[in-house]
Design a protein that fits this description.
Helix 11 packs antiparallel against helix 12 and helix 16 runs antiparallel to helix 17. Helix content is 43%, strand content 15%. By secondary structure, the protein is of the alpha/beta class. Strand 9, helix 7 and strand 10 (253-259) form a beta-alpha-beta unit. A four-stranded parallel β-sheet has the order 4-3-9-10, with helices on one face. It has a four-stranded antiparallel β-sheet with strand order 5-6-7-8. The chain binds zinc ion. The site of zinc ion (ZN) has 4 residues, from helix 7.
Length: 449
Amino acid sequence: MIRLHDTLTREKREFIPLNRERITMYVCGPTVYGRAHIGNARPAVVFDTLARLVRHEFGGKSLVYARNVTDVDDKIIAAAEAEGVEPSVITERFERHYLDDMGALGVRPPDIAPHATQEIPAMVAMIQRLIEHGNAYEAQGHVLFSVLSDPDYGVLSKRDREAMIAGARVEIAPYKRDPADFVLWKPSAEEVIGWDSPWGRGRPGWHVECSAMIERHLGETIDIHGGGLDLIFPHHENEIAQSRCAHGGLPLARYWVHNGFVDMGSEKMSKSLGNIITPAELLAQGHKGETLRLALLSAHYRQPLPWTEALIAQAKAILDRLYRASGESEASEVDEGVLEALRDDLNTPLALSRLSALEGRALKASANLLGLLQHSADEWFRGGVLTDVTLQATGVLTRTRESVDRLIAERAAAKKNRDFANADRIRDELKAEGIVLEDGPNGTTWRRE
Ligand SMILES: [Zn+2]
């Protein structure tokens, strides 16, 4: 049994799909006008891992996973103008980069990747229905969703009206009946990309894109809707309002799953703050995709993840150890302890700590479920990765990682037997060599001073 934390009910609930043969999951995908950063990679990795778990539990063909590509947007139009090219030149380039970068992190492509520019008729049809139902209105070439027409508006973010207006950073525009109303359709100037519609030539707003694509590809009510925390308001709130009002009150999604931010220092990593680091840069520095994936899975998905050099180094050390312990074995059954951790709201830190107790075939299969140990040990250690033995010979390491791990295991056993004198002796011995042990909720880790 999988349990998932649902943002709508603010509870961890047993995951019961509507139809076990066709479980539906939708995750808001990239707006393709620039290279994805590590913060953008987190939902891709988290929901890829959830997809692997659902398929393990319900069967390989049980899940239909859709992730959209936003290929019409004002930022895309601006990037195309700056380069003097068609928007499609920008979107095709950055979609290819996105798939390459995520592929390097072991993210499998979704089953369906709808593109906004290919789905305009579905969006126009949904907007028309919203107008007919009295939930949207036309004004000066725009169509707006009327927030006051939907008494349940705010159900996901649970914000009051003032906070919603402030949070949406809405423009006070003369064509809006209410400042909280949001755009479903807007006019395009002649030189700008646009489509004919009952309201003149224009283009869709971002929110209606997801509602229309979900309806067309997955259905009126889906099982899981995912994305980053920052999408709760206004994007997902608006998706809920549009879909529910278009579908006679049917819920859009049965479980709303949101991942936390990747932080740089004390700030969220974001393009607008200019504090981003991309998987492409990290890969170019020689880090392996699997190392970045493990780093992204090292915190629980709902928690913030501080991105540091130490985090990457630790992820690499863990993978070196796992590759050594797995040897060249073939995958077999996934370990129950690892599964139990993942079934509990995708507790990847616990699953990773349980992996470290495994070896051989069970380790390989369990790590594979997390998208890890996808290479042979031989491949992993070749490819320019220095061995501990080499590092020791050159004086970089005082002892090999295995021997540190062995002492950590000895110390854990001593503590379990309440032999604290011995446990402290091991800690002090390592400290004297400049190796600091840190006890955390998921076991003991170590770092060099
Ligand atoms: Zn969306």
